[in-house]
Design a protein that fits this description.
heterotrimer, B: 465 residues, mainly alpha, two-stranded antiparallel sheet, 2 strands, 75% helix, globular, C: 374 residues, 71% helix
């Protein structure tokens, strides 16, 4: 099979599962479809020969973040039917906005000519972990280090907000 | 760059100092830290540097923006009183550390040369603000505000990222210089049309942060729900940094494509002006009024971004400084009065709570008045000249209709700002003498004097900017 | 046949064999678990089916299949079935990247005794392990039972907490090998340069985390019967329950194999060169595969040994150990490893770091004990 066939198959699967995330009524199903979507995206990374990103995508998103999502959603009482809080006007406005964004993007992408890569300079191993590490620690050193500040802020903040206070219950 | 490193380290040191230091001394230490990093910022004056492989560029413009941002941080820390009243439920070391970290983010936003840096800076600033908004965790309104801000803010970040991706896809570079090079070396017809979608999406992401009109729905709730001291920080630092970024993206990077984005931004500007001012006029709560007034001021500043004249950057600087000083003072006075009124009246942040402030607290009342006059744009205050420069830009560009709307809306503005002044001076009410700390007084008076000096000698700073 | 096709066939055979060995080991682990428990408690253990009870796993399997397959009425049916299947799937997938042996030549075809040699091997293991919790979580939720839900939630938080320390202890290994590929990691350890000599602390952290990831005692809080009846598998019966239990034993075997790969030289054994010279590369490689499986089985034994020796943790103790004990320790380990590599004396640095840590702990303990008395 051609690589492009794999691509079409994976893309179709990705779109389908992403749609199911939005359409399914049960939040647990939504989360599981979202996990599946991440797997499909990881598949795209494999097609791009970016194996490190594929593994990290699975570990971080499917393995950690979505587990926490599931964790929280499982605590909800799903049997209680919460009435739809959105009015018809909001729904209409949302549809119009999303629809026009879709039309614009489709129109924009329809006409472009993708440049073919220059075979003399193209390096198929660009996505490998060795190359990625080199780029991260040379060209992108500053943002890479500053991301630590971002995580540190998030960490300090969550500890501060989540810490048990005087007078709070234990559980 | 040195202030970025210094502030990150100071933030970490601050967390450690929290173990041993008392509240008031933490405040002093934090002030010293910010002054130190301001000195480090100013040391690069008149030099132009590129840092770490073109990731950041510091020049006089970015230094000016950095100084204004750090000045705002300085004022907020000075007004904070060390969070001393609430011994059990406040964690000053964490608050100050997060403030310092968020200043790092703001500094990145004013001096980025790579879109990745813009994203990282914006996220550092935003995450810090989400946390601080929810820091009053026993207050339901604060929790609601934090959640609202977080959800909407992450949505806006998504827009920004999508825009960056589209811009990268069409220009094959994340560096501002690379984008400019590729844009100028490609025929406009052969540029992919999703570049324009990318510009607009990036614009949406940034306009959200400065709360321009169709993306302003979070502002009143978040400003009202957050503890006042952090509302002050939000409305000064985030706005200044956001405008620096917007100027950098729309005017510097994509200034050549003005015809593609100008109509959208015009539309947004005019809606922002009208909605911000008209809604502010209806508010009973002074804090909410200030929130809407911050929306309307975003509209005025957007006007000069639309005009895109050579003087635009200096106008944004001047307006940011004037707005920062005035807003900080008005929030500070509101904060101490609300603190005093808590338990005495039902809604301590309403205009009614300010009634009769002038009788026993003439200095607070005077400072509040000066700040509101400056926000309204009355002559002899900094706010007047800020608006004046903006309108001059518009005249130079021959944009008549927006000016008419802006002037009309300034008139509406005078109405609601004077509501505050009237309740302070002319309405009767019982407010005893409110004790404030020494640092609070210094900050209040220096901000007031700054407003007046800038109002009387606007050329003083205009020559530097 | 074309070379690619022969290679494909060879790989398919390897995967099948690994599959069979894993399942067989898992089946007999149940038998040995009971035998070891019996030995430790001075009993006889299963001895009815066949000589020494050797056919016991078969009898168990028949029992499992014959039981009524029951699905609770308010359970989410599809997810209820999916839970054990996911557990089994993720348990089996990890073995794909473990190098069971060096290059062998059979019938003129040369290939590695390894499912796939990807350059992110260890991340693959890590990714699949992090997915392992889905089976438990989904099964626990779909049962529509509070105990099962609590079990699932415990499993999720436990896995996420211990993954961090596990990843950090692997980082120290990666600093030595400079590669994520399991094959390269094993090749760097040939001729007795096993990582355990360089990384004693890293190994201890890793094995503790492995216990927690496999939900084995003393970390078997998700199925702690004194508190949660059966935990996440309270509502399961028949072969669905069998799948869960099977997945646990498979996980034990695979994590033993991973530990052997990372810390104990993989398929390396003393006298490898000698055997290779006498008998040729291929038999030596097959003996190596046997050595790896032997090491893995030893770790399975350790798992059981610990299970019948130690009592269970309390849940807050478990979280404390993970977040405030193991994570700082593994960061310390990364630091020591860095010093070792920079100074050029990795063994001395590794052991000195370990000794220093123990000394520090003893001194700290002494100081606090004195304080408590005074």
């Amino acid at each position: 099979m051609e690589v492009s066939n794999y691509w079409y198959f994976l893309s179709g699967l990705t779109l389908l599962s992403a749609l199911m995330v939005v359409l399914s009524k049960n939040p647990i199903h939504s989360v599981l479809y979202l996990v599946f979507t991440f797997f499909c995206i990881s598949g795209h990374y494999v097609l791009l020969n970016a194996q490190f990103l594929m593994a990290v995508n699975i570990i971080v998103y499917a393995g950690a973040i979505m587990v926490l999502f599931l964790f929280v959603i499982m605590m909800f009482d799903l049997k209680k039917n919460i009435p739809d809080s959105k009015t018809n006007l909001t729904k209409l406005a949302g549809t119009v906005v999303a629809g026009s964004v879709l039309v614009i993007l489709v129109a924009a992408f329809r006409t472009i000519q993708y440049p073919t890569p220059d075979e003399s300079t193209f390096n198929p191993n660009n996505g490998m972990v060795e190359n990625l590490g080199k780029v991260l620690y040379s060209e992108y050193l500053l943002p890479f280090e500053l991301v630590t500040v971002l995580f540190f802020v998030a960490m300090v903040g969550s500890v501060m907000l989540g810490k048990r206070e005087v007078g709070d219950r234990n559980f | 760059m040195t202030p970025v490193i210094a502030l990150s380290l100071f933030g970490i040191i601050n967390l450690f100092l929290g173990f041993t230091f008392k509240r008031q001394s933490l405040q002093v230490v934090t002030l010293l830290f910010i002054i130190c990093s301001m000195a480090l910022t100013a040391m690069d004056w008149n030099h132009e540097y590129l840092w770490f492989g073109d990731m950041m560029k510091t020049n006089n413009l970015s230094i000016n923006f950095s100084l204004i941002i750090q000045l705002a941080g300085l004022l907020v820390v000075a007004f904070s009183n060390g969070f001393g009243k609430d011994e059990v439920y406040t964690q000053p070391a964490e608050y100050y550390a997060i403030l310092l970290f968020s200043l790092v983010g703001a500094l990145l936003m004013v001096s980025f040369q790579n879109l990745i840096m813009l994203f990282v800076g914006l996220e550092i600033l935003s995450v810090a603000m989400y946390v601080l908004t929810g820091s009053d965790k026993r207050n339901l309104r604060s929790n609601e505000a934090a959640l609202k801000y977080f959800l909407m803010g992450s949505f806006a970040t998504g827009f920004l990222l999508f825009g960056i991706a589209l811009v990268y896809g069409s220009t094959r570079s994340l560096y501002i210089s690379g984008i400019l090079y590729n844009l100028s070396h490609t025929a406009p017809e052969s540029l992919p049309s999703f570049l324009y979608a990318g510009i607009i999406l990036m614009g949406i992401g940034l306009l959200f942060k400065i709360s321009a009109a169709p993306f302003h729905f979070w502002t009143p709730d978040v400003y009202e729900g957050a503890p006042t001291i952090f509302t002050m920080f939000m409305s000064t630092v985030v706005k200044t940094a956001g405008f620096a970024a917007i100027y950098h993206i729309l005017d510097v990077t994509f200034g050549g494509f003005q015809k593609n984005w100008i109509i959208t931004v015009y539309f947004i500007t005019i809606i922002t002006l009208i909605l911000g001012n008209i809604s502010a006029a209806y508010q009973q709560s002074a804090k909410r009024m200030l929130a809407f007034s911050s929306i309307s001021h975003a509209g005025y500043m957007l006007l000069t971004v639309c005009a895109n004249q050579p003087s635009t950057s200096s106008n944004i600087l001047y307006y940011s400084l004037a707005y920062t000083l005035a807003t900080a003072v008005s929030f500070a006075v509101l904060m101490v009065v609300a603190e005093y009124q808590t338990g005495r009246t039902e809604k301590p942040e309403n205009f009614d709570a300010l009634n009769g402030l002038a009788k026993n607290n003439p200095s607070l009342a005077f400072a509040f008045t000066v700040a509101l006059l400056s926000l309204a744009g009355i002559p002899l205050t900094a706010g007047f000249w800020g608006k004046f420069f903006v309108f001059t830009d518009m005249f130079n560009k021959n944009l008549t209709y927006p000016i008419i709307i802006a002037v009309l809306m300034s008139a509406v503005g005078i109405y609601y700002y004077f509501k505050g002044i009237i309740s302070v001076y002319f309405n009767s009410g019982e407010i005893e003498k409110i004790e404030t700390s020494f640092l609070f007084k210094i900050a209040l008076w220096s901000a007031c004097i700054g407003t007046l000096v800038l109002g009387i000698y606007p050329t003083l700073l205009k020559s530097i900017f | 046949m074309e070379p690619t096709n022969t290679l494909f066939m060879a790989k398919a055979v390897i995967i099948l064999v690994v599959f069979a060995i894993t399942l067989g080991v898992a089946a007999y682990s149940t038998y040995f678990e009971r035998k070891i428990a019996a030995f430790m408690q001075d009993r006889v253990g299963p001895d009815r089916a066949g000589p020494f009870g050797i056919l016991q796993p078969l009898a168990d399997a028949v029992k499992m299949f014959m039981k009524e397959d029951f699905i609770p009425s308010h359970a989410n049916k599809w997810l209820f079935i999916m839970g054990p299947c996911l557990s089994m799937l993720t348990a089996l997938m990890t073995s794909a990247v473990i190098p069971f042996g060096d290059t062998v030549t059979v019938a003129g075809v040369t290939f590695d005794l390894q499912g796939i040699d990807v350059n992110i091997g260890i991340l693959w293991v890590f990714g699949i392990v992090s997915l392992g919790v889905y089976g438990i979580l989904i099964g626990g939720w779909a049962s529509n039972n509070k105990y099962a839900l609590l079990g699932g939630i415990r499993a999720a938080s436990q896995n996420i907490s211990y993954e961090l320390a596990m990843g950090l202890s692997i980082i120290a290994i990666l600093m030595f090998s400079g590669s994520l590929s399991t094959k390269t990691i094993v090749e760097a350890q040939q001729n007795g340069h096993w990582n355990i000599f360089y990384q004693p602390l890293g190994f201890i952290i890793f094995i503790v985390c492995a216990f927690a990831e496999c939900n084995r005692t003393p970390f078997d809080l998700p199925e702690c019967e004194t508190e949660l009846i059966g935990g996440y598998h309270t509502e399961y019966s028949s072969m669905k329950l069998g799948f869960y239990l099977f997945a646990e034993y498979i996980n034990m075997f695979i994590s033993g194999a991973v530990m052997a790969t990372l810390f104990f030289g993989g398929y390396d054994y003393p006298g490898y060169e000698f055997v290779a010279n006498k008998l040729g590369e291929t038999p030596a490689a097959f003996i190596g595969a046997g050595a790896l499986i032997g090491k893995a089985l030893f770790f399975v034994f350790v798992f059981m040994w610990v299970r019948w020796t130690l009592p269970r943790f309390r849940y807050d103790q478990l979280m404390n150990l993970g977040w405030t004990g193991l994570i700082p320790l593994s960061i310390y380990n990364v630091l020591v490893t860095g010093i070792g590599i920079l100074s050029g004396q990795p063994i001395i640095a590794g052991i000195a770091g370990f000794v220093l840590l123990i000394l520090g702990l003893i001194i700290y303990d002494q100081l606090t004990v004195k304080k408590k008395i005074a």
